[in-house]
Write a structure and sequence with these properties.
Mean pLDDT is 77; it is low at 131-136. Helices cover 32% and strands 10% of the residues. The protein is elongated. The protein contains six helices and six strands, in the order H-E-E-H-H-E-E-H-H-H-E-E. The strands form three sheets. The chain has a two-stranded antiparallel ribbon. The chain has a two-stranded antiparallel sheet with strand order 3-4. Strands 5-6 form a two-stranded antiparallel sheet. By secondary structure, it is α+β, with helices and mostly antiparallel strands.
Length: 164
């Protein structure tokens, strides 16, 4: 039994394709091959059913109920279900210790304290009267190389403006 189990885990083991008996596929590539071959052989795919416990098991539709009752992978799924139901009452959710960090920001207050002049690209912004530096002009610092300038107009015509 142990040898059979190790054999089934070997990624280099060759498996026969259920859609084309001439195909011998490595176990590690088998799921990808099944998808590809199912598309290439729709007539054979309609005659086969997929095992609900292992998608690698493609069985003739007439034999699927027998396969389901005797599938080796069924025991793994059943054991998982039993373990989950046993642990259902034992699980406790840990109380979170996360606390919100203190915050000195007040976005609503900042909104009311803003100057009433809107931002316009390329123009000088003056500080409001409530600032101690009310007569200092805040110039926009250009990151362009010397001798370069920002274009004065857009490079295209807006569709709603007719320039005839």
């Amino acid at each position: 039994m142990e040898e059979t189990y190790i054999d089934s885990l070997d990624p280099e083991k060759l498996l026969q394709c259920p859609y084309d008996k001439n195909h011998q596929i490595r176990a590690c590539r088998f799921p990808y091959h099944l998808i590809k071959c199912r598309k290439n052989h729709p007539d054979v795919a309609n005659k086969l059913a997929t095992c609900p416990f292992n998608a690698r098991h493609q069985v003739p539709r007439a034999e699927i109920s027998h396969h389901i009752s005797s599938c080796d992978d069924k025991s793994c799924i059943e054991q998982d279900v039993v373990n989950q139901t046993r642990n259902l009452g034992q699980e406790t959710v840990a109380e979170s210790t996360w606390r919100c960090p203190p915050c000195d920001e007040d976005w609503d207050k900042d909104l009311w304290e803003q100057t009433s002049t809107p931002f316009v690209w390329g123009t000088a912004n003056y500080c409001g009267n409530n600032s101690s530096a009310s007569n200092i002009v805040m110039e926009h610092k250009s990151n362009l190389a010397s001798g370069m300038r920002v274009p004065k107009s857009l490079p295209y015509v807006l569709p709603w403006k007719n320039s005839k």
